Request: fold
Amino acid sequence: MKSKFKNFFKGGLGQLAIPIIAICILVIFNLFRDPSFFSIAIQHNNDGNIVLSGNLISIINGASELAILAMGMTLVTAACGGQDISVGAMAAIAGSAFVKVLKSTSVINGGTVIAGFLLACVVAMLFASFNGTLVSVFKIQPMIATLILYTCGRSIAYWINGGATPTVSSPIINAIGSFIPGIPIPTPVLIVIAVAILFKLVFHFTSLELFTQSVGINGSAARLNGINSTFIKLLSFIILGICVAIAGSIGVSRLGLINHETLLLDIEMDTILAVAIGGNNLGGGKFKISGSIIGAYVIQMLTITLYAMKVSSTDVKAYKAIVIIILVVIGSPVIKSKIQKLISRIKARKQNTIAKGAV
Reply:
């Protein structure tokens, strides 16, 4: 047990230590505040299907889009040493393309949904490639390069559907945004699991993880070793584009309509924070997708906790900012280094005491 504890904190607290500790603190706090906070109920929804409900289900369900975007953002951060601040706007564009196809037919069936999703993927990948080209080819800092789409992306989403906010109603769309009949777990949660497994398989069967980390740590050295750093950076943006299309499609399916102004509004900031809380270096290099996923759930759990405490929606962002600043500072390399030095000093004193006692 002691060796496992040491391994967990090895290397400056360990990359997953901060998000896991944050989750544990929030769990303990809520258990003391309200022991029933994590209770799960079984009930029937409006369609008469048996579903799970409760704060815990709301947390894992509500963080679905954020977790998916955080996975893609982690790759961009690791490879490029910067973040894409246009993911919310691109999600609106992808969602608009998704709805455009759905509204092109009188009856929405499986084929229409698949066609709409594929178009959303293509559109999101094209816009993500635009961002990636600015970063990888023209060497523009990621946050500046993506500021273009952050500014005009929702206007493009507005143009796609002629300024309208069309609704889409279909059992298939409802199932994607809520529950599949006969399955009590929210569908977005299942989609997050599927995306995470896909990332795991890609990393297992390819060298993408190694190449991405190599480019992020030292792009020049990576090129000398035969790694095309320009392609890796561009690929990371394209993968983020696919994640954006998935998140945008889920968002549309939840609401049953496309609203270019509100769809995943401000999610880009939460996405960057999820990556940071997950222990990933925002300057690029080594990364853990699992850390970003946990970071997304930390943010969502904090949000649900604040709402449960009757904090007004206008104050939630301020409280979230305070807590997140604390978490990010604690997880910073400077603080990790100081804690590691403190632990080393304590160990050294303990060893000296033991040595003196032996003498």
